[in-house]
Amino acid sequence: MHTELLLDAYHEQLPLYEKLKSIVVEQIYTCLHENHIRIAGLESRIKEEKSLANKLELKGYKYHSINDVTDIVGIRVITFFSDEVDIISALVEQMFDIDWENSVDKRKSLEIDRFGYMSLHYICRLPGTICKEADMLELCQIRFELQMRSVLQHMWANMYHDMGYKSDVEIPVEYQRNMNRLAGMLELADEQFSRIRREINDYRRNVQSLVATGNFDEVPLNGDTFRSYLDLKPYQRLMEKIAAINQAEIYEDSLIPYYNVLLHMGMKTVGDIERLRNKYSDGAYQLALLQLAGTGLDIVAYSVALQNICIVAILKQGFGEAGLIRLFAALYGESAYNAQRAERVFEQARKINLV
Amino acid sequence: MNITINKQGGKTLVVLDGRIDSSNSDRFQKDMAPLMEGDSPDIDIDCGGMTYTSSQGLRIFLLLQKSVMARKGKLVMRNMNSHVKEVFDITGFSNIITII
Hints:
The structure holds two protein chains of two kinds. Chain A is built from 15 helices and eight strands. By secondary structure, chain A is α/β, with parallel strands linked by helices. Chain B has helices at residues 25-32, 55-70, 82-90; strands spanning 2-8, 11-20, 42-53, 75-78, 98-99.
């Protein structure tokens, strides 16, 4: 009888559960967006009648009213990294009122020699500020469960569940050891991913600071350091000079495709590409002047500066037309036209004594 | 200049013939405008008959490229003669648009 009354109340409140779920999901998405946090996923559900009935069957004596059941509305935030769970939980604590008595950190509840379900479960209510509005009073009576876990923790829990076991019900002992080994491995992997990410961020901050302070020779050339170098707009002055030939507009295209070209040209450090710029900027400008003056072309891509620096460097280093063909192939792909392109540029360069 | 536009298997095929300059760039832009929206972002331009493009033409190709990229499609320009290719090379537009 008690169970039936609770189920009736559940049916009556279904529209409220739907509304609560939408509000919570929207608030979480807004908060993540405002804090520039990417997550692996967000799941939300309203407990199905059958599942609630089972729960009431087992533990119905605990619940005086339907609002004592705290997980009818369930939200799950899945992070990429395990250390992001703490960041999300800090935000959740600001967003909602937490029922600490019923919340549980399964990450801490495992004993030192146990591996398994790792997740942070908060029982929440909409905050007092929202509950002051008359039409929200009913909603604010309802608690919801918010679970936070990493994508690897999520994977483990899903696989466990898929095998027919709830996380709080252990699988037969003969399989337990292998499951524990897997759980331990995933916990280690979670930690390693977080550690690697921290180290990469430290590395990036370090090279950004080296690049920003002009210690270019200490900075090995890689995708990250090339981007940091480009943030300094090293080709801006040359590009403005080239644009001035026809009072042209500069279209800011990406210089990232030049990263591989520079590697092929033997650049090892950011200092190498800085020297390339210093050494060949004049020649690059002379080449642009010859090509653009009198054409009336009043739009140029930002990449022209680096394109011409590479051309001049190749010619000055004696690689000739063959070197230009390799450069154009790297930039534009293999094509019979590259030879014609190289011949034309070589001839132009010869006119201004670049070869 | 003559512009022919056809749809083929989810792709838009454009054939350009003649010069693009200040005398016809407005018309060219109007003709290209429908290609910058809609659900067929892949555009293939046959430039075999195109003899020249001015900066106005380059700007329109750039708009096309941006709209195509925004819709995760691909803009390909093919059969360009060497004079037109030179315009794309010296302005750096060969770095922006796929020319085959």
